[in-house]
Q: What sequence folds into this?
């Protein structure tokens, strides 16, 4: 089939590369010349394991075409995916301006029969606007059906998530569009959820918000465990063995971040409010998430007293491991709060330094793990990169001024660290 993706963020670029790898001819339309020029050389605008290799392979096979132009991509395509960003507005709802703008450009270029589907997360109701724009802007003779095909991939494991998803959700009122989209996904072995547009969109928001809720629940249990001297990791392992609960997304830490959970929880609260429903459960999820971030700073003050003038080493800046993404990373809040209190910060992240410099310009960036510890009064772990797991604790202790560790991701065994002579504080234990 011939497909076009508008947008080359995580969702657009990864899904485009995977569909090209299945043998489809795939156009990717962007609006920044420099990024498109780089993509034509196989250079991705962000780090995602395995992605550049997949892009290069499919560029070479001439199945993946990067362009700034809507022609000939749109008129040729059987399916056009809108995969542009929907950031949060000041009011907490999703900003649809880019989605609506590209809908107009798609509409003007439609020829023959085309299915236009959103991969971007848009609230129920947005579909009517996009559909109206497509209908109003298309030429006579062009036929269009509209669908929602939400994406569930995670950064860091985006390619395997796209090839092996837990389900494929297709939301459309049109039988013809449904058939085209089912055919397009035939190479993916996953159960299909065939439904209408609004339901598909709500599945996406409800899934992300539920996962955020699980994380906040884990962070609340961690907090309580600290107060009553229980081991939160055992508690969460114990509840996760119940199949009805499941053991995934129950790791306590510095709170969820990234471009999805914070935005989608806020948007679902806002959608509920617009419909006269106060989704206070999700408001509490956000409050607990903020507390999880603040708790790291509270623990730092607990160890150091006044943090003014103290050297604090930070391992990990990205919002999670295996990505260079700093959007809404817990590290931004935590480091800013510590800096406001006068702490001196030295940090290391294997991939996120470049993006971190934009949001955290006033910290010292170390170029390897151990230099972070030189003369440090405290070491804080904020991202669970594999390369932090097996560090040499003798070396760490030798380099630090005082051997204090706040393990924000519970990477280390408290018993072993205490045997090394560290003052160790994890999350929930
Ligand atoms: C999330 C969803 O997991 C994807 O299914 C969805 O497609 C995506 O959002 C999206 O809407 O585009 P992502 O944000 O890439 O994916 O990463 P996650 O692995 O879900 O992690 C999100 C945040 O939760 C990270 O800050 C992570 O450190 C944190 N987290 C995750 C925890 O604190 N504890 C956990 O147990 C799991």
A:
């Amino acid at each position: 089939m011939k497909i076009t993706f508008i947008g080359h963020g995580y969702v657009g670029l990864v899904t485009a590369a995977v569909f090209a790898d299945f043998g489809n001819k795939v156009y990717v339309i962007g609006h920044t010349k420099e990024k498109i020029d780089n993509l034509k050389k196989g250079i991705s605008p962000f780090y995602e394991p395995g992605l550049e290799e997949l892009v290069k392979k499919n560029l070479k096979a001439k199945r993946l075409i990067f362009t700034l132009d809507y022609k000939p991509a749109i008129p040729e395509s059987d399916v056009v995916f809108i995969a542009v960003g929907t950031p949060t507005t000041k009011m907490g709802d999703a900003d649809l301006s880019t989605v609506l703008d590209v809908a107009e450009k798609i509409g003007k270029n439609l020829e023959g029969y085309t299915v236009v589907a959103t991969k971007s997360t848009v609230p129920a109701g947005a579909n009517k606007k996009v559909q109206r724009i497509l209908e109003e802007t298309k030429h006579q003779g062009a036929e269009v059906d509209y669908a929602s095909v939400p994406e569930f991939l995670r950064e860091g494991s985006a390619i395997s998530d796209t090839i092996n998803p837990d389900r494929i959700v297709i939301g459309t009122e049109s039988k013809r569009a449904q058939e085209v989209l089912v055919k397009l996904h035939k190479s993916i072995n996953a159960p299909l959820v065939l439904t209408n547009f609004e339901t598909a969109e709500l599945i996406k928001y409800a899934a992300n918000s539920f996962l955020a809720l699980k994380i906040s629940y884990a962070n609340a249990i961690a907090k309580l465990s600290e107060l009553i001297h229980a081991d939160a990791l055992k508690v969460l392992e114990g509840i996760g063995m119940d199949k009805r609960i499941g053991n995934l997304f129950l790791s306590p830490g510095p709170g969820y971040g990234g471009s999805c959970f914070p935005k989608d929880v806020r948007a679902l609260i806002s959608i509920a409010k617009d419909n006269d429903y106060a989704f206070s459960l999700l408001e509490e999820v956000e409050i607990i998430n903020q507390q999880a971030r603040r708790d790291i700073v509270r623990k730092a003050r607990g160890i150091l007293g006044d943090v003014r003038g103290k050297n604090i080493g930070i391992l990990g800046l990205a919002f999670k491991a295996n990505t260079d993404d700093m959007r809404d990373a817990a590290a931004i809040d935590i480091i800013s709060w510590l800096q406001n209190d006068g702490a001196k910060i030295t940090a290391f992240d294997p991939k996120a330094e470049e993006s971190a410099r934009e949001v955290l310009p006033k910290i010292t960036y170390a170029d390897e793990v151990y230099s972070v510890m030189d003369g440090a009064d405290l070491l804080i772990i904020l991202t669970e990169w594999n390369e932090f797991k097996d560090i040499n604790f003798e070396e760490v202790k030798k380099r630090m001024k005082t051997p204090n560790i706040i393990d924000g991701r519970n990477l280390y065994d408290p018993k072993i660290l205490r045997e090394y002579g560290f003052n160790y504080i994890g999350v929930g234990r």
